[in-house]
Amino acid sequence: GAVVSQHPSRVICKSGTSVKIECRSLDFQATTMFWYRQFPKKSLMLMATSNEGSKATYEQGVEKDKFLINHASLTLSTLTVTSAHPEDSSFYICSAREGNEHREQYFGPGTRLTVT
Amino acid sequence: GQNIDQPTEMTATEGAIVQINCTYQTSGFNGLFWYQQHAGEAPTFLSYNVLDGLEEKGRFSSFLSRSKGYSYLLLKELQMKDSASYLCAVMDSNYQLIWGAGTKLIIKP
Q: Which of B40, B87, B95 sits opposite A43 (nearest CB)?
């Protein structure tokens, strides 16, 4: 099956710093990538949808200047949490989809971000 | 608005059968997915239904009724490792996934 990797798996950073999370589709071309956030014991919350080569579409309530998303190639998308604060601590998960015909989203393993 | 409903938590016994229900109201329908998520891990794909009826895959089966906006995930011969959250998600007319809040399944010996 299709594989999506995420790096890093865990990161601890100090308040005010920025953190970049990478999401890669390893064996297929991801025309669309999704970034989710998940709080403990809660369901996935879609943050943004990104299509290769175009600007990401952010969900209501998600600050685009704080959560910078870049989808520069068909195999890589990055999420940068800028000026992180403790309330940004969460589990961030990316998923990737190959076109509309292949409807399944393949999930990365997630990144646990802790801001101290 | 769009809405996915599923029970918050269910408990079942090892070796038994459990059915997790999901009802939905979405703008358009391009299929319904079930995912399994263990604590601290990303979701993994279980099943996809786009036509009415039952799809069987080993110990897991998923059923869909589009006219009723209803699906269920059936887990047979429950094992302790099946303790996880089960997420129902519907793909709407824009090919976006609308997620339910998940059902936490607790398996007891």
A: B87
